[in-house]
Amino acid sequence: MNIQLFIQRSEALHQYLADLYQTATLLPWIPSDLLPQAFKELHSTSKMLQLAAEELYQQNEELMQNCTLLETQRQHYQELFEFAPAAYLVTDQQGIIQEANRLASQLLNIDQNVLVGKPITNFISQEQHSYFFSTINQISKSEQIREILLRLQPRHDDSFDASLKVKSVANQQQTKLHWLIHKSVAYQPVESTDVKNFTDLIENRPIHKHSKGEIITLIPLLIWFVRHGLVKLSAFSETGAEIITGLAKPGMIFGSSMTSLPIYQATAIADVEVVVPIYLSEIAATPNLNKILLPKIQQRLQQTQSFLFIAGQRKVPARLQHLLELLKQQIGEPVPEGTRLCFRLTHEDIANICGTTRVTITRLLSQFQQQGKIQFDHKKHIIIIHNS
C-alpha cells in the first residue's frame, strides 16, 4: 500500500470514530457508563495508529533520501570504474567476467556487453589455464593483493604480455575478484656486445618483492633471478605430499621452464626480491645470453645432484650431515663459532629433503647439538661448529 494513502485512511478512520462517538451519545438504549470507556479505547488505538503511520512516513522519507544518496554514490563509483585510466575487470571465483570497463574492452578488443559473462580464460593461452586456476584458487583464500604475469590473447588481435594485479573481495553473498590489467613493458633484445655479464643483463629490470611464505608466480615464458632471500622449489606427489627439489639462493635462477615436473611451485622461505623477467624469447634472440645463463643453470644442476646424493644415503643421520654440509656451502656465513646458516629452514623442510619425518629430524638435531656438531643462535638459526 502507498504510504501516503495509508496515512490518509488512518486520518479518515480517526474522524469516523469521532463522528460515531457524537452520534452514539444521542442513542438512549446504550448504557451511559459503557459508551465513554469503549470510545476512549477506540480513540486511543486510533491515535496510536495515526502516530505509527506518521512515523512510518518519516522513515520512508529517510529511506528514499538514503536510496537517492546511494544511487548517486553508485553512479559516481561506476563512472570512476568506467573511466579508470587502466583496464579493470570484476570476475567471480571461477573467472567469469561480471563487469568490465571501457579500457578492458579496448585492451581485449571486444565490446563491453559481449565481454560480460565470458570466462577470462577465453583470453589466456591454453597452456596457462592450469596455472591460472591454481593461482586464483589461492587468491580467493587471501585478502592480499597479488600480481601475476600472463600472456593475453585479445579477440582478433596480437597477443601480449600483461601484468595483472588481483584482489579478492568477499561479502555476505559471494566472493569477487577485482583485476587491474597493464601491458608489460616489452624488453628489447640487447646486442651481445652490450651484455658482458649477468649484472648487465638484470640492470634496470623491475623488482618484485614477496613476503615469507608467499607463493611466487611461475610462468613457462619466464625465468626468475633471486636478488635477495631464499626460494624453496617444490613438486607434489600424487598423495599431495611436498617434495623439495631445490633451494634458490641470491644469484640463482629458477622457472617452470627448467623442469618437466607437472606440479611445480616456488615459495619464499624468507622475504624475497626477484628480478622480473628474463623471457625465453629474449634468450633466443640474444646470441651470448646462453653463455651468461649457463653457469646459473650449472649451479642449479649441481644442487640437484647434491640433493640426489643426500637422498641416496642409507642412514638418516648421514643424510642430515650431508645436507648441513651442503647448506653450509650454499647459505652459510662465517661467525666466530663456525658457519651460521643465513636462512632458517623448518624441521619439516629439512625432513622433506632428507626423506624422513619431522620428529626424526628434531631428535637428530638435538643429538648433533649434544655432540657439539651444531648450536643455535638467538634467532634459532643453525650454526655448524668448526671441525664438527
Quick overview of this protein structure:
This protein has 388 residues and is of the alpha+beta class.
Oligomer: single chain
What is the end-to-end distance? 89 Å
**Count of extended strands:** 17
The percent of residues in helical segments reads 40-55%
**Class of secondary structure makeup:** alpha+beta
Biggest β-sheet description: 5 strands, antiparallel
Instruction: Indicate the low-confidence ranges by residue numbers.
Output: 186-193
The main sheet orders its strands as 2-1-5-4-3
* Beta-strand content bin: 15-25%
Compressed to H and E, one letter per element, the order equals: HHEEHHHEEEHEEEEEEEEHHHEEHHEE
Given this structure, which CATH class of the largest domain is correct?
A: Alpha Beta
CATH topology of the largest domain: Beta-Lactamase
Mean pLDDT: 80
Rg is 35 Å
Give the name of the CATH architecture of the largest domain: 2-Layer Sandwich
Please explain how this structure is put together.
By secondary structure, the chain is α+β, with helices and mostly antiparallel strands. It has 4 domains: 3-19 and 37-80; 85-183, PAS domain (Beta-Lactamase, 2-Layer Sandwich); 198-284, Sandwich (Jelly Rolls), CATH 2.60.120.10; 316-385, Orthogonal Bundle (Arc Repressor Mutant, subunit A). Helix content is 43%, strand content 24%. It has 11 helices and 17 strands. It has helices spanning 3-24, 34-82, 102-108, 112-115, 129-140, 198-202, 280-285, 289-312, 316-331, 347-354, 358-370; strands spanning 87-91, 97-100, 146-152, 160-170, 175-183, 207-210, 215-216, 222-228, 231-236, 242-248, 253-254, 264-268, 272-279, 332-335, 338-341, 374-376, 382-385. The strands form 4 sheets. It has a 5-stranded antiparallel sheet. Strands 6-13-8-11 form a 4-stranded antiparallel sheet. It has a 4-stranded antiparallel sheet with strand order 7-12-9-10. Helix 1 runs antiparallel to helix 2, helix 8 (289-312) runs antiparallel to helix 9 and helix 10 (347-354) packs across helix 11 (358-370). The longest helix has 49 residues, at 34-82.
